[in-house]
Structures are given as structure tokens and as C-alpha cells.
Amino acid sequence: MDPPQAVHLGPRKKRPRHTGTSMASTPHDIRFRDLVLFILEKKMGTTRRAFLMELARRKGFRVENELSDSVTHIVAENNSGSDVLAWLQLQNIKASSELELLDVSWLTECLRAGKPVVMTGRHQLVVRRNSSSSPTPGPQDTLPPAVQKISEYACQRKTTLNNYNRVFTDAFDILAEDSEFRENEGSCLAFMRAAAVLKSLPFPIISMRDTEGIPCLGDKVKCVIEGIIEDGESSEVNTVLSDERYKSFKLFTSVFGVGLKTAEKWFRMGFRTLSKVESDKSLTFTRMQKAGFLYYEDLVSCVNRAEAEAISVLVKEAVAAFLPDASVTVTGGFRRGKMTGHDVDFLISSPEATEEEEQQLLHKVTDLWKQQGLLLYCDHIESTFEKFKLPSRKVDALDHFQKCFLILKLHHQRVDGDRSSQQDGKGWKAIRVDLVMCPYERRAFALLGWTGSRQFERDLRRYATHERKMMLDNHALYDKTKRVFLEAESEEDIFAHLGLEYIEPWERNA
Q1: Share of residues in the chain with pLDDT > 70 (%)
Q2: Catalytic residue among 345, 399, 459, 473
Q3: CB–CB of 38/75 below 8 Å?
Q4: Active-site residue 434, yes or no?
Q5: Is 83 a residue of the active site?
């Protein structure tokens, strides 16, 4: 297993600035004449810029090689509005107040749709407060209202995978993990909340002035941010990464079935490597831990999207063999748009199934995989769900639906174009899979709960309790004031009950 890497801000390479490119372009029909695009090369690179320009022209967009007065939209990648305005100043170009400064995510969504899509706050590049890069005061010199007032709740912030502050959030993830290993819940939560709010920002933190007005950034958190800004790295993070206890816990908990108590026990016994743990005759392992060691190399490697899609086909085929009308939905990180994950989660429900059929389905599915030689490990958890039980008060409470935690054998030929693991000779990869079976009328609550992210779900339940006097978990939503359970056919219904703007799954990456 590769050792964790230190978090560095790193020096930025200076590139020559150009307003245009000498690339030749094949003429294309222009379908959208009201838009004139200019794609900024800064931080994007010549090759990617040329590719996006050509692709946009093929889709009917007018894209200028050089910046001119006719340009209506500037598209940039990994730049804030202040960065773009500073670049324009260096070119001695005065920005019009009508000029749209947009993130490349807007263009990629346009290309997918084959037409211009509506510009929203998450697409528009933000000019930081007190920025000296804007030549004259104008509408872009102030933050939009949504940015001026940032909610302390992740469920009121849209957080995509486009993270402008990864250098800080990576540091906080490491510090939160170390606090969790030390069972310091307060510090862990503080770092998790700080990482979550920085991930939602539509601009990068460049100076401490940029942190003004941002919630969830306590003194300890700001000290880490300041250290990274000044030194390019965090001394606190470097201390953690070199700490023997942290490294041992990180290694031990990477084994499927090993939690903090077991990691603590092995560390106190003097173990520092997995080979020493495995070879010690005095230790006894659970069935889950034995599977974790047996398939360690496969399970510790990330599951990519192609593998997740192949597993999805496998699950849907097996479920359809017994309940053809059942819906099978991928949840977790893959539903939020992530390209890799540690496992693949599925929510299963059926509008027509009897209670007995629901109870038997997961057993039938796993029996089928066992007959097919695909089941490497299985742990069934039977349902303890009670229809009129109040939602749990604990924000991290597990649900009571029937579920099973599996390791499945995925043959390489089921993964389109996958050649990555062909060298191992065994022709397959062990994949962690979680299946959850829930009653059809509870599917909206279960889907919301199993989609994540962890911090988004914590804040959603916290918001329900503190702001709405309601109780929410994976089973139900209860209004304590009216003393009634609130029904929901969809996730949108739950957000509406809570008085929240609906946030799409790919915007819940807190």
C-alpha cells in the first residue's frame, strides 16, 4: 500500500500568456449566434483548449481564437473571476460589465446537451471581495447573495466535485481521520465541517481575507489554512503523516472488517505491518477479517466507474430473475458522480412484492451468485424495521432495513475495455458490494440516506432537528410540532417538507 502523501500548495509554473492560438480550424455551421465564446488557456493548457474549441464548434457554437469586443462569454478552468480579470488587465483589455465569466463546467454541460444551458450561480466565476484586479467597480465586484451568506449546513450548499480548495480540504481530511483514530469526536467534526464548507466554495482561498464570513472555520482550522498559504504545506499534517500511530491505524483499518478497536489492539501489541498481524498464531480473526486479508489487494484498490457499471448489470440481472418489477438504484459516491469508490451500494425496492418476497429476495440473489461461483463473501443483516417507530435522534444512526455486505467476483470480460487487471492471471477482481432492501413506500428516505455524502446527511438531519423541529432518518420524516409522519414519494418531496431548495445528487459531495 502506498504511503500517504504530504499536502503541498506547491509553486506554480509561469506560462506565457496568449490571447489566442494559431491552431487551424475547420469551418462549422454556427447555430447559436447570440453567444460568442472565448476559452482561456490560462491553467487549462494549449491541447485541452484546442480540443474544447473544436468540439464546441462542431456543436454549433461560435468560438473565437482571439479575444475581441464581440466575445460575450469567457470560459475558464481552475480560475476565479478575479484571476480572469487580472489576466485581462495584463492584456490591457477592459472587461465589459456585460461580459460573462464562466467556469468550464458550463461549457461541458452545453456540449453534453448540444445547446446552451441556463447559467446558474455554480457556473459563474466569483470575484473575491476587496479584489484589486477589477479595473472599475461593476456588478461582478461583489459576491452574489448566495456566496455572501454561506450556510453552516451542507444541505443548504451545492457541492460538486469541482473543488477549488483541494490543498486545504485534503489537509483537513487527514486531520479529521487522525482525530477519529484518537476518538476525538469534537476535533474530527470540526475538521470535517471545515473541509465540507471549503469544498462548496466557487473560488479558491488565496489569502486569509478570503475566509472572512465563511462559517465552520474556527481558530484551529484557520491556523492550518494560514500555514498552508504561507509555507505551501501544513506542518500539522506533516506531523500526522509521520506519526507511527496514524500510519498503523491507517494500514490496519484498510483491511475489510477491521475497526478502531481492533486497530488499537494490534497497535498496542506492537504490530506495525499486516504481514506480522497475519502470521501471528495468537490472533483470531472474524470471518469478515479473513476475507479482508484474503482479497486485500483487490479491495484496497479503487473500484472504477466501468467496474461499478458492470456490477450494476450483474445485480439487476439477479434481482430481475426473482422480482422483475423491482427497481435497483446505485447509491453512494457513484450516484453523486464520482469516478472511483471503495465499494458499490445498491438500493432495491418493489411496488408489488409481498413482505415475504421482500424478506427472501436478498437470500435468493446471493444463493444464485453462490451457484454461479461469484459469491466470495456474504454477511446478511435481517430487517428490524418497524413502520411507526420514530426516526432516530442520532445523526449517524444506521437504518433497520434488510441488507447484505458482499464481496463479489467480477470477471474482466464483463468490464468493457478493461485491461488493467489482466496481468494478474486470475481473470477477475474482488469487489465490495452492499445491497439494501427497503419497503417501496420508504424508498425516498432510504435513497436520500444512502446517497450521502456523510457530512451532507449529518447536516440534513441536524437541520431537520434544529431548524424545522422534525426528525429525519433513512426510514421516515416526523414533524414533532404536528405529531405526524410526513409521506414522500421522492427525494424532492423530503426537501420540500423541510423547506429546502432541492439539491441534486451530484451537488451533495460535502
Answers
A1: 88
A2: 345
A3: yes
A4: yes
A5: no
